[in-house]
Amino acid sequence: MLARRTYQFLIVYAAGLALLLGLKYLAGLSDYVIPGPLLVWQTFRDVYGRYAADTLNTLSVAVLGQIVSICLATAIGILGRQTTWFGNFVKVAAYNVQAYPIVALAPIIFILLGDGFITRLVIAAMICYFPLLLVVLGVMSEPVVEIEHFYRITGRMRWQLEVKIRAFENLHKLTTVVAGSATLAMAGTIVAEFIAANAGIGYSIRIALYQSDLGKILVALFHIGISLSVYQALLEWAGARVQRRWEAAGGDVAS
Question: Would you identify the CATH topology of the domain 42-248?
Answer without folding.
Answer: MetI-like fold (1.10.3720)
